[in-house]
Amino acid sequence: MGKDIFIIDTRCHLNKSMKKIFEKNGFECEVAEGFSGVPEDVLRKAKGFQAIVIFVNKKLQDSDVEILKDNGNKMILCCSAGFDNIPKHDLLKEAGIRVARVPSYSPSSIAEYAISSMFALAKNIQRSYEMTKLADFRIGGLHCILLEDKTVGIIGTGLIGKKTVQKVAGMVDKVICYDAYPANDWIKTVPNAEYVDMDTLFANSNIISIHVPLLKETQHLINKDTIEKMKKDVIIINTSRGEIINTPDLVDGLKSKKIMGVALDVFEGEKAFMFKDMSKVGFENYPELEDLVSMDNVIISSHVAFYTDESIRQITDKTYNNFLGFVGKGDVDEKAVVV
């Protein structure tokens, strides 16, 4: 049995589930844990392993390609749909390193989290909870909004966006969607949903939920100008990538009361915090984030929307199958291949 899988600390249950499935099927697997970033000395411990396994909490730099090449690593297995945490594709291709991702894993998990965030903000649950913990049972400032007569805007109708549309449609009056590549046949299956242009979505949505990948075109999609186009008292939900929202502009929108509430399962600069206990350090050097967490109409969570038992099972199984496909012991899912 040779060296097969080197797992770079996922800081979650994936460490155990990945190790279990590979070892159960006769592959040698090592988990490197307990460090920040991806130190060079840790990466060099992967020498001789066929594959590196990486999750969203870690990022490989362009300069790491030479180390991977020297290690003899032949593939990077991303345990996520996104792959903005790997080196440039041309560098990897030149080094003969293949990359696979998990195109989808329980999109319902993230859709349900987005919808629960909509309700938490619309019903002032966080503010009420914080008050009653202090034995303050006054209801001034706790009036809620009714959702059944509201319009929800969904930006991005990939698998997660579609699930969000389908689940929320029965709870609200109307769902309006934007996607660069609209699924026109699918949208007809949801009676109160339709595609609109982006400006129409901004102008007419009471709640906006973001479900697009981080691309050059989507970076800072939510900014001062687009917030200005939105309805007053809009609620914004982001479970996709933090960099899609310009954080200082978001803070300004909240302080001006243009925005009623925000739920962020992802945020700019989250790699410094992701899956770590930062309670002793706090938010020093991150003033906008400190502003956000001080507001009782803002919900910030630690990239956990995906984190259900079903998601872990699917990520584990699909990553294992990607490995089998790359080593010629199974079929290669072309949708999973990045490089």
UniProtKB/TrEMBL annotation:
Its Gene Ontology molecular function terms? D-lactate dehydrogenase (NAD+) activity; NAD binding
Q: Which PROSITE patterns match?
A: D_2_HYDROXYACID_DH_2, D_2_HYDROXYACID_DH_3
The UniProt keywords, alphabetically, are: NAD, Oxidoreductase
**Record-annotated D-isomer specific 2-hydroxyacid dehydrogenase catalytic domain positions:** 13-331
D-isomer specific 2-hydroxyacid dehydrogenase NAD-binding domain boundaries: 116-305
Identify the InterPro entries for this entry: D-isomer_2_OHA_DH_cat_dom, D-isomer_DH_CS, D-isomer_DH_NAD-bd, D-LDH-like, NAD(P)-bd_dom_sf
Span-the-membrane segments of this chain are: none
Family membership noted in the UniProt record: Belongs to the D-isomer specific 2-hydroxyacid dehydrogenase family.
Under the heading PANTHER family, the entry gives: 2-HYDROXYACID DEHYDROGENASE HOMOLOG 1-RELATED
Q: What is this protein called?
A: D-lactate dehydrogenase
Specify the species.
Lepeophtheirus salmonis
